[in-house]
């Protein structure tokens, strides 16, 4: 009964919204807002035809590869740099104003600049994604590392833990909730930049396809593209959430224990 | 085993300086159980951090097991008051206890044996796979104690370890610490502001003055080695010692290096 | 100078369960050293950029020397079109952020305080929130073309979710004891809202607005860059296609300074709004 009720809560509104969309758009003559029926009808031909050569596989793979590569590289760089900056006050003082300035530059304006150096190929897009993801992860890492509990640090020192072990068993785990929060922000910025860089200049990728449909006035197809991009965002967020809740089980457990006490 | 020689600590900022310790001088013999008592604000924590090598004194020195302390010394384990902040919440109980042993480069088998033994000592053999935040405060402090004894230190420093647990648990933990001291013969220096606790636990009590701190007095606790919460605390000698120590602390509240030397 | 690198805490992660560590007060002398070090940092970046091209490490047209970029920047500061572009950018950003904030707070409080409503909408919110707002670019291009409205739709869509989600979390954070106390004193619905829910949710709301402010600027510039709505992004795209690279760098720098100003203003507002709140919270927890 209880599960039935919660399933109801999860499904009710989406069903209502989709039905409304279906009904309202059913005899739509507005070119920009084709009926949901037509959009869904256009979906298989647009994205799935051709099996391994289909648009979903080819463009989806191109986009996801750029996103993943940029995001992972950004995480590695940001966490190592952020740990260093967080641990060394002098380094932090040296870098801080520069970082403040660079992170304030909105990611999309980097697209033409990176384009100068890296052309319009995959490298450019990966670097754009990387630079976009970098700042939220970096700043959160710095803050997380700085906030590591002083008693824990004293404990590690008094047991003479080596610098390496201190970083890997104390600093990074302690900062991990903040680091993951930064990664979550970085991921959504990364998706935006991936799409933008593909819209700006590309020969393949999801962003490129969607803009092509728009330029060719293929409206139902364009709508399917919007849906695919939305699904990509959703899947990325679900995958990340799984990863996050898995690696922060201790943290959520601890918070729950603190709240119940 | 532990020698503190004419230690002074002055905190300096750009325009002020604060002398926490003036001239603290005492020794703890191997296998001794000493309590360090002082009124609140009597540089106890400063002194402890200097002894543990976490802070550099402005003058004077510390020797642990005949070696001068410059950083955190070998063979010294520290138990903090803030048990919740000294255990790592992302590690299980057994992993917390094992962590310092990894740094000693002990083989896995020996590490596991020591962890099991230490956890058995504090009565937590069934919680090895739990996380610290799943345990009560008293149990968490037991884990911190287990971590310290698994490390087999020459000197065990305890910084008001039971100040944050309830009275019932506190009595149990006091007995636990006494038992561990007797069984393992670890030199123990126990910092507390609780007079009863000091008399109950120690063989000798060192009374610190207010800041700038000096050693105001040392008292031998000539109670029988076998102690228990009911009978020991009702001995007439316990009351006498408690009375003396209380008076001494009252004096310490107004005394410091300034008034005593003046 | 603030010694705090501003960081946007994620939902729920911001309140550390560890007892907060009092930060060491920076000494006056230390602060001067830090400012000097910071300036040295900026200067070294400028110096490196100055000599990369002359040393043949990059082509001069790709990265003009710092002095050339600075000259272009000085020229831009005298152009009224540039100031117009700055104005357009701020205009779209501010309106979009304001609309998204008000909508996010109102809907957030509604969803947060009415449990069945929250449960019924959470799946939809979780579905719509991660949809990258840039997915809507083709649609707004067709519907509005290169006009303000295009940018506004993107900005509002992106910023709305940030504020909404934080507000819902904030309302959920209300201490049940406080809520029960209010109820036992027979506070009216409005009273509970005014004296219990709103003060609790406020720090979360401010976090949401701070996140939204950054996102809003990103989307404003994106629209200008890709759709060509007027503003700094459009100027950058024009400089890029015209091959005026020093000018493009100078414009990017100006956009960065605008971003910096946005961060600083939002931070000041947050500090202001939460000033009483912080001290209140500290007292309560001690």
TrEMBL record, chain A:
Pfam families for the chain: BPD_transp_1 (PF00528)
Principal cellular location given in the protein's record: membrane
Its membrane topology: Multi-pass membrane protein
Subcellular location: Cell membrane
GO process terms (BP): transmembrane transport
SUPFAM superfamilies: MetI-like
Signal peptide bounds: none
Coiled coil spans: none
Ranges of residues in domain ABC transmembrane type-1: 64-244
Protein name per UniProt: ABC transporter permease
Protein source organism: Cryobacterium levicorallinum
From TrEMBL, chain B:
Keywords tagged on the record: ATP-binding, Nucleotide-binding, Transport
Transmembrane stretches, start-end: none
Domain ABC transporter stretches: 5-235
GO molecular function: ATP binding; ATP hydrolysis activity
Pfam families xref list: ABC_tran
Record's keyword annotation contains Nucleotide-binding: yes
Protein name, UniProt field: ABC transporter ATP-binding protein
Organism: Cryobacterium levicorallinum
From TrEMBL, chain C:
A GO cellular component annotation in the UniProt record: plasma membrane
Entry's transmembrane regions: 32-53, 90-114, 126-145, 151-174, 195-228, 248-269
Name of the molecule in the record: ABC transporter permease subunit
InterPro entries reported for this sequence: MetI-like (IPR000515), MetI-like_sf (IPR035906)
Keywords, in A-Z order: Cell membrane, Membrane, Transmembrane, Transmembrane helix, Transport
Gene3D superfamilies: MetI-like
Cell compartment(s), UniProt: Cell membrane
Domain ABC transmembrane type-1: 86-270
GO annotation, biological process: transmembrane transport
């Amino acid at each position: 009964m209880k599960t039935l009720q919660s399933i109801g809560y999860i499904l009710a509104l989406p069903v209502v919204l989709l039905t409304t969309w279906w009904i309202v758009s059913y005899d739509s003559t507005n070119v920009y807002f084709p009926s949901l029926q037509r959009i869904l009808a256009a979906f298989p031909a647009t994205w799935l035809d051709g099996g391994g050569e289909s648009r979903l596989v080819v463009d989806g793979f191109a986009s996801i590869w750029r996103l993943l590569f940029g995001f992972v590289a950004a995480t590695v760089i940001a966490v190592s740099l952020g740990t260093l900056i967080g641990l060394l006050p002098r380094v932090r003082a040296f870098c801080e104003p520069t970082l403040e300035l660079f992170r304030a530059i909105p990611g999309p304006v980097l697209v033409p600049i990176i384009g100068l150096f890296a052309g319009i190929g995959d490298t450019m897009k990966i670097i754009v994604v990387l630079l976009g993801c970098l700042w939220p992860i970096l700043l959160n890492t710095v803050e997380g590392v700085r906030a590591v509990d002083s008693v824990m640090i004293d404990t590690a020192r008094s047991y003479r833990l080596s610098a390496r072990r201190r970083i890997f068993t104390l600093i990074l785990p302690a900062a991990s909730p903040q680091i993951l929060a930064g990664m979550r922000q970085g991921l959504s910025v990364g998706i935006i930049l991936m799409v933008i860089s593909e819209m700006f200049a590309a020969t393949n990728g999801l962003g490129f396809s969607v803009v092509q449909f728009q330029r060719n006035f293929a409206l139902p197809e364009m709508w399917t593209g919007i849906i695919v991009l939305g699904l990509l965002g959703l899947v990325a967020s679900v995958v990340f959430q799984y990863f996050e809740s898995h690696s922060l089980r201790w943290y959520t457990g601890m918070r729950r224990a603190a709240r119940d006490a | 085993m532990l020698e503190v020689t004419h230690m002074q600590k002055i905190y300096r900022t750009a325009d002020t300086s604060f002398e926490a310790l003036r001239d603290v001088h005492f020794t703890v013999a191997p296998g001794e159980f000493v309590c360090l008592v002082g009124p609140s604000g009597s540089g106890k924590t400063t002194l402890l951090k200097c002894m543990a090598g976490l802070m550099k004194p402005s003058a004077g020195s510390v020797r642990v097991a005949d070696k001068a302390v410059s950083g955190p010394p070998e063979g010294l384990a520290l138990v903090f008051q803030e048990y919740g902040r000294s255990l790592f919440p992302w590690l299980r109980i057994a992993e917390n206890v094992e962590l310092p042993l990894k740094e000693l480069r002990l083989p896995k088998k020996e590490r596991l044996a020591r962890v099991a033994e230490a956890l058995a000592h504090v009565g937590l053999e069934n919680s090895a796979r739990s996380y610290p935040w799943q345990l009560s405060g008293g149990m968490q402090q037991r884990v911190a104690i287990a971590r310290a004894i698994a490390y087999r230190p020459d000197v065990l420093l305890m910084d008001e370890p039971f100040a944050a647990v309830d009275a019932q648990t506190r009595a149990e933990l006091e007995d636990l610490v006494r038992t561990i001291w007797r069984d393992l013969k670890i030199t123990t220096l126990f910092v507390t502001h609780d007079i009863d606790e000091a008399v109950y636990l120690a063989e000798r009590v060192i009374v610190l003055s207010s800041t700038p701190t000096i050693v105001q007095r040392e008292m031998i606790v000539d109670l029988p080695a076998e102690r228990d919460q009911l009978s020991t605390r009702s001995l007439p000698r316990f009351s006498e010692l408690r009375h003396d120590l209380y008076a001494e602390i009252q004096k310490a509240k107004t005394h410091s290096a300034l008034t005593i030397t003046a | 100078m603030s010694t705090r690198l501003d960081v946007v805490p994620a939902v729920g992660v911001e309140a550390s369960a560890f007892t907060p560590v009092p930060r060491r007060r920076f000494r006056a002398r230390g602060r001067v050293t830090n400012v000097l070090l910071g300036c040295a940092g900026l200067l070294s970046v400028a110096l490196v950029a100055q000599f990369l091209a002359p040393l043949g490490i990059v082509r001069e047209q790709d990265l003009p020397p710092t002095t050339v970029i600075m000259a272009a920047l000085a020229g831009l500061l005298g152009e009224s079109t540039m100031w117009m572009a700055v104005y357009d950018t701020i205009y779209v950003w501010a309106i979009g952020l304001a609309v998204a904030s008000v909508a996010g707070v109102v809907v957030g409080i509604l969803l947060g305080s009415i449990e069945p409503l929250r449960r019924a909408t959470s799946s939809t919110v979780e579905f719509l929130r991660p949809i990258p707002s840039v997915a809507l670019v083709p649609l707004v291009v067709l519907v509005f073309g290169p006009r303000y409205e295009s940018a506004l739709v993107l900005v509002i869509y992106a910023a709305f979710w940030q504020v909404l989600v934080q507000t819902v979390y904030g309302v959920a954070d209300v201490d049940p004891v406080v809520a029960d106390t209010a109820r036992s004193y027979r506070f009216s619905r409005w009273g509970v809202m005014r004296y219990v829910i709103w003060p609790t949710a406020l720090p979360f709301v401010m976090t949401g607005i701070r996140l939204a402010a950054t996102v809003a600027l990103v989307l404003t510039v994106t629209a200008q860059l890709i759709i060509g709505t007027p503003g700094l992004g459009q100027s950058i795209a024009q400089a890029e296609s015209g091959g005026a690279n020093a000018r493009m760098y100078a414009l990017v720098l100006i956009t960065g300074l605008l971003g910096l100003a946005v961060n600083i203003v939002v931070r000041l507002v947050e500090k202001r709004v939460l000033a009483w709140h912080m001290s209140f919270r500290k007292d309560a927890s001690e």
